[in-house]
Amino acid sequence: MHEPTLLRFLKGKIISPQGLENLSTYGYHGVDHSFFGNLVLNHYWNWAVQKLPMWLAPNILTVLGLLCNIVGYLVIAVYSPSFSEEVPRWSFFVAAALIFAYQTLDNLDGKQARRTKSSSPLGELMDHGCDALSVILFSMIVGASIRIGAHLVFYSAVAGFIPFYAAHWEEYFSGSLVLGKFNGPTEAQLIFIVILIAGGIGGPDMWITPLNASGTFRLHHILFIVTLAMAVPTLIQNMIKVYKVIHGRDTSFIDSLMYLAPVFMFVFLILALINTSALLTTNPHLSLHTLGLIFAFITVRLIIHRVVKEPADLFHYIFIALALASINSIASFASGHEFLPEPIVLYILFGISFTQFAFLSVGGANQLASYLQINIFRIPYPPLASSSDSGHVRSPPLLTSSSSHQRSHPNSPMQIHTPPDITDETGHAGDMPETTGLLSSNNNNHNNNDENV
């Protein structure tokens, strides 16, 4: 008997029995063409991973990377309640260092997973989940540092949400994620670091330097415009790639576009909510975190469906709560009378969003760990006595090398096969969108086949 998705979700069974069975053919495919990553940083990452103990689980590195982003946000946000206040110079340098630490950990987790033979779909989901949560954090860190204001931080986040989701939509159909040479996550994070260091050296007023006589157009507006300008061509690029992958197959391109419905529905609802309310004026940080949690949820759901080779959801129940909040704001705005107080609506929406993402992340991680017989934060496969010198360790059960599998499993969504022009690389490969506006938070910089445990 088929169990309803909502009931299964409430029981903590995020993945269906058939999806769990499909994990036997799991394999990750990706390649990163990052110019700076391959030219310089990959040598540093290869050196750094050799300094890590073999017992250190890659998932610990993944979570530590997320914590770096959270601390980096707190360091600046505490001085910038509305994203327009002056922040101390030292906070710029601390935030820049933490972003660099995040970038390093984000690249080491996949390398550590391959080094310890502990790659798994659980690691990939944790990796992507932490990245999805970081999308909003990067927009808020950079937005506060350049004093651009809450509303422009919101729009820069939207400009990051769409291409981030579209990149995983592309991977859902192609089975591989190919990162660009200059518009990938590595370059984006380096730009973030440069912006922060420049602000620390030039002072907090540097990015609000007026560029016209009236003072209405400032230096930080250039960064914002570049962010918006990058989102559209990147989305078009994702669409072109999906079209090429499915061209001539049973699945139509129009059908594939339907799987973008969740992110556009999400964007439509949050635009309606924000533009008819005073939430970004009265509660800017909580509002942005709430939207970030909802975005992380719908993105991780898409990733889970790709990993377990099942059709993705076109609608999420969280949209009902978001729609009700938007309707309350629209009705209050149109009538001039507040129906439900906006702060109360926001607190309820945040509570629902947080609870839902917690159910997804904890339930999904525990379900995968139980089925794969692995530990989330510990490598249970000590080195074999006969091969301790070589550093080889036992491989997890049920998993096979990603290089031995294509995306063409009979139960894979929409029967999509890996295109012949995409290869599975075991070196500097990753899972991040080929886009980076200066404020967009496309930060999945897993340039190392990051299906860690």
Question: What's the SSE blueprint?
Answer:
Blueprint: H1 5-10, H2 17-22, E1 30-32, H3 35-49, H4 58-77, H5 89-115, H6 121-145, H7 150-174, E2 177-179, H8 185-202, H9 219-246, H10 253-257, H11 261-275, H12 279-282, H13 284-307, H14 318-335, H15 342-372
Parallel strand pairs: 1-2
Helix pairs in contact: 3-5, 4-5, 4-6, 5-6, 5-8, 6-7, 6-13, 6-15, 7-9, 7-13, 11-13, 11-14, 13-15, 14-15
Explain this structure.
The chain is mainly α and 453 residues long. 59% of the residues lie in helices and 1% in strands. It has helices spanning 5-10, 17-22, 35-49, 58-77, 89-115, 121-145, 150-174, 185-202, 219-246, 253-257, 261-275, 279-282, 284-307, 318-335, 342-372, and strands at 30-32, 177-179.
How many helices in DSSP terms? 15
The averaged pLDDT comes out at 83
Task: Tell me the β content.
Answer: under 5%
The coarse overall form would be: globular
Adjacency order of strands in the biggest sheet: 1-2
Q: Give the low-pLDDT segments.
A: 382-438, 440-451
How many runs of DSSP E, i.e. beta strands?
A: 2
Distance linking N and C termini:
32 Å
SSE order? HHEHHHHHEHHHHHHHH
The radius of gyration over CA amounts to 22 Å
Q: What class do helices, strands and sheet pairing give?
A: mainly alpha
Helical content band: 55-70%
For the biggest sheet, the summary is: 2 strands, parallel
